[in-house]
Every structure is written in structure tokens, then in C-alpha cells.
Write the C-alpha cells for this entry.
Amino acid sequence: MANYNFDEIVSREGTNSIKWDAREHIFGNKNVLPLWVADMDFRTPPFIVDAIKKRAEHEIYGYTFKNDSYYNAIIGWMKRRHNWEIKKGWISFSPGVVAGITYAIESFSKPGEGVVVQPPVYFPFFDSVKGTDRKMIENPLKLKNGRYYFDLKDLEKKVDSNTKILLLCNPQNPGGMVWSKNELTELAQFCLENKILILSDEIHSDLAFSGFKHTPVASLSEEIADNTVTCMAPSKTFNIAGLASSILIIPDKRKWLSYERTTGVGHLGMGNIFGSVAMEAAYTFGDEWVDEMVQYLEKNYRFLENFFKKELPEVRVMKPEGTYLVWIDFRNYGMKDKELSAFLAQEANVGLNNGAKFGSGGDGWMRINIGCPQSILQEGLERIKNAFKNL
Ligand SMILES: Cc1ncc(COP(=O)(O)O)c(C=O)c1O
């Protein structure tokens, strides 16, 4: 029985929304239909809005700490949703996952040391590595039968004793892989043997489609847990990225202390009141909403897949196993990078993410965001179809 209406169109214009209000600046065309940056056009669920309103009504927003009900909400969510038993003492805060990744790189490696990335991947990873003066080691994913796989043979050739961290995207953005237990075990075992810390970005963990199950890499064994730092957040799941609140889960005490030292200097651990209230509400009351929302995403994906099959069969779509991001292969049209991006923005009037930015293997692909009412997605797909038909 559906309780929530994901078909509702909520105008976001005039809210300083990067997706909607920065269109002219980003695409040079204020008329693009924005299907790019990874937030959703669904209303934030009422139990989060109510919790924020209730706290706002108090009218004093001074310094606060995070109490047991905040920690218990996180612990409960990880157990219920991911079958992962974590402890309060493993949890740290970060004002966003990219911030957490960057501070973790600072905490667990030194300038000049190697950090592995696996492109095509969420491109701010590259900035986190380069911006901290670490050496970026590229271990591209292997494309086989329309899905990406880890390439451990290539990884083996590229790492050495200077390689300290592997930055994992689990589930994967942009390909949408919900990495299997076997895939993760092989990779994690390799990292253990080579003394490489796994820094696992699991921001999309709650968005696995039916038939797929997210595995927190740290849940595989105690030994792997001690060699893993996991970033999680309710931001993608509940559409609250603007509250800039996420967590790191660090089972190894020495590593936890090291991360806390890095962020403690800047007093980053407190976060903000509304982010903490929202996280607690999300992880306490969010199960039903997420289940319905993910079903809606799957419906949107099926719509998109059928649309391209029928209307533009030259376009290939990578079948996502989760996330609200779909990776689309336009290479049959012979257009690449800026030309493809400009064609879609200027001729089709749609704003997508340029695949080339995701690194090696991404050129000729585009990433589309299907976290929106189906009528918006349909409008975007019609625009793409019409532009290519007129080519
Ligand atoms: C894999 C991944 N990590 C991190 C982020 C951003 O997280 P935050 O806004 O919390 O820094 C995104 C957003 O799209 C993402 O897809």
C-alpha cells in the first residue's frame, strides 16, 4: 500500500538549488531540464521535516552534543538495513561524505603516498586525492557484457609499499553496481595482504534494487573491519544533502582516534543541530519510506530502459543494481566529451553529467539522475529522443 506520493511535482526554483537554479551558470542554458547533480526532486519525508520543525520551534540553537538516541538510531539502522552490528565507539561525524573522505586520506596517509581510485567513478574522489598531494593510482574497472568489474590483475601490477589507501565506491557511482560479497571479499583480501586501508564510500548503500543486497565491506570479517573506514550518510537516501551531515564508521580504535584528532582540531565533530535531528529521525522512522522510494526508482529505471530500447536503440544503458544514477552509453553516435555534453545541453535541452569527468572509460557516456517524478524523467527522455532524431 503506497503511503507516499513520488509523482508529485515540487518546484525547487528560487531555493538556490544547484540542480535547478544554477542551470544557466553550469550549462549556459537556463532551459535545460536538470537530470544531473545527485539529489532528488522528491519531498523530504514528513518524519524528518517534522523533527526539524519541532527542534526549530525551540528557538535557541546553541552548542549541542549527540546523545544516545542519535547513536542508537544509527546502530539500529545498520543492523536492520545492512545486517551490520556496529558500536557507538566506532562512529565519527563528518560534514558530508567528501569531507570525511578527504579528512580520512589526511589521517591515514602522508603526502606523496599512493591512493587507488577505480574509474569511471564519482569524480570528486580525484580532487580528494590530488588536493591532499597524494599520488593517484588508477585501477580502472573492467567493462564486460555491459557491467563493470574490479580488475585485480591490474591492481596487483600497480600497487607497491607506498600505496596506503584504496578508495572504494560501494555501491558504485556512476555504474550502479551493488558489489557482491564475493567481489568485495576478493578485493578486501587483496588489500589486507598488501597493507592497503579500504576507504569505502557507502553513501548509496540504502538504494539497492530488488534482487540485490548491499554488503558493507567492513561486515565481511573482523580483520577486514579493522582495515576499513566506511563513510555512510542519510543524505542520498532521504534527500537531505543540504544538511551536510554524515558519519564515518571506524572499528579500529587507533584509526578512530587518528581520524578524531584530524577533525577535532577544527571542531568539525559537532556538525549542525538540524543535520543531527534529521539523521536521527531518518534512521529511526525511515524504513517504509525508503522501501517505497526505491520501488519508485526501479519503476523509473524500467521506464527509461524501455524508452531507449524502443525509441533510441543506438543508446546503451548500464543496468543499475541500485542508486538513482544511470550510466548511459552514447558512443554509437560518435560524439565525445564536450561535443556530446554540449549537444545534450544546447540541442536536447537536458542537463546530464558528462561521463568524461568520471575518468578513464567515461568518455562518450553520460550520467542521468532518475530520482524525480516519472513525468519529469519522461520529458527529459523525449527531449533526448527528439534531438537525436533531428541529428
Ligand atoms: C559516491 C558519492 N560519494 C559522495 C557524494 C557526496 O556526498 P556529500 O555531499 O555528503 O559530500 C556523492 C554525491 O553524489 C556520491 O555519489
In short: The radius of gyration is 21 Å.
